[in-house]
């Protein structure tokens, strides 16, 4: 079953690994397959508009290109929408939410802000009745720790809250998030030791604690491997073996550095793939070309190669 | 002041920064340095990913102190004249400790500790972790056992969250909304909705429609429980808030040379300064250094390479790839230099910027940490 045939995808990973880039590339590819896609960000300094060359994306859903909408959710706006969806009538909503006190109360209620955003994204993929607004919702999640805090909320509500609309929605969300046919996580990492360690911890929390399936692993910024095995050992010791006055020291130093980088990368990839069973895509190092308009198309293609 | 002086003249050093910039490594390296220099150091992390353990040769970080054995230093030819311990913050236990300290009696204490909302707030609520890190900072600052505590903080996407964590938690509990809610709800609970104001009833029912009334009951129990110990709690938050600004506490900003990270570092830096906290240094990790360029044509390079390479390796075949490696290194070095200079022109006048070069290999043992420490504390910049 194809990754993009799901209803809800979480793109998760450590800060700075390229979650937004991957989420955008997936959204672009899904929209190209004529799925109606919502790319949802969580109250962040959004960079999607920069990647796709569009106007900045705010807390109202905007259309970016054919079949692709995006939103940068804020707790206030999401809570308002969630409240409206439940209370249905604007006048009733205004009576309740118009009160500054009620708003402040809801803001102060633990977890409700996180749930309002996650819940909004969830409603777009799976409303309580009727057809969903989107075929696929891609959530560009916050960095590791904060993502887990957020994803835990519906699970906590399900176990803590007494029966009611909140509990019902949380239970539906939990059911969807745990169903590998409908939803799951795309885990993004870098081919280095520490990022891989954190990825393994994150994956454990997702699959063992929350029981959210990991559908795909993405290793971002993979360097082109320049040297073969027999060259490596030679290049590693080359700078030390050169005579004092040589004009190729720089070349030798660059060779050694690259060999060591490639070794680190190789070990990291082997380690992360050894622990995570999901299909894996490797994305090339782009050398700061991430904002190039063609880059996203190229990455979309690269994400299709799964082993 | 070099970073070595900063470590020497403070009791607490806090690393802050966004994710993926080597913050934990920097914290660990500073702790390793101070311990080698003869101080008794506690390296405290609240990172749930427990990355620090990897670097310090521990199986995993635990919520009780673990000593990093001297033998581990010796194994890498290093000498530790002081002592190094590592510990991971237990957010829930720290919070429980606060409740135990400030609850009026045992019954009140148990009511809070057993409340499900509390349990969620204390263990999982975003922001609690930041607050408890600050709380812990306040506690260890007074602990005579340590000469220096290095506190690694969770990656923060919003600097403000971190700096205002104590105030925010207090605000959430003590807001007019919460007080109103408690009043209305307790009134309603005792006498039914009939006796409270009609408008309040409408509002309460409105909220109840979303959350369920029983949920509101639990929130009310939680809020009233916390309210009871509010006086103590508020004083504590003020103490913590003051502690952050104490001259004993130094903040070290950590960033990488990536444009996004540099931008955030600058933002953090302003916020720290506005908040009156001691921003002592900015560490830029993983800076690629320029490599000497060969002053030879490609053909001459092949000839020169042939002289030093074993016969099994074809110099003509290898040379273009070496050139590509050099080209990549050069591009990274130039991009990094540009970013560091941008940062320097923006905040360099009043803050020391410390560069740590990108290493060929991952930093994941104590020798590598000592090497990072060397660059961190060196007075001459690479």
Helix/sheet category of chain B: alpha/beta
**Largest beta sheet of chain B: what is the strand line-up?**
3-4-2-5-1-6-7-8
Share of helical residues of chain A = 40-55%
Q: Name the shape of chain B in a single word.
A: elongated
CATH top level class name of the largest domain in chain B:
Alpha Beta
- Segments of chain B where pLDDT lies below 50 for 5+ residues? 190-196
**Count of DSSP helices of chain B?**
18
Average of the residue pLDDT scores of chain A: 88
Instruction: List the chains of the largest interface with their residue counts.
Output: A-B, 86 and 81 residues
Strand line-up of the largest beta sheet of chain A: 3-4-2-5-1-6-7-8
- Terminal CA distance of chain B reads 17 Å
Shape of chain A: elongated
Q: Helical content of chain B, roughly?
A: 55-70%
Describe the largest sheet of chain B: 8 strands, mixed
Question: Count the strands of chain B?
Answer: 8
Description:
The complex is a heterodimer of chains A (307) and B (382). Chain A is α/β, with parallel strands linked by helices. Chain A has helices at residues 19-32, 48-52, 75-87, 90-97, 100-108, 112-125, 144-160, 165-178, 193-210, 229-241, 249-275, 293-304; strands at residues 8-12, 37-42, 62-65, 68-73, 136-140, 183-189, 214-222, 280-284. Chain A has one domain (3-224, 279-304): P-loop containing nucleotide triphosphate hydrolases (Rossmann fold). Chain A starts with 7 loop residues before the first strand and ends with a helix. Chain B has an eight-stranded mixed sheet with strand order 3-4-2-5-1-6-7-8, with helices on both faces. In chain B, helix 10 packs antiparallel against helix 14 and helix 15 packs parallel to helix 17. The interface between A and B is large, with 86 and 81 residues.
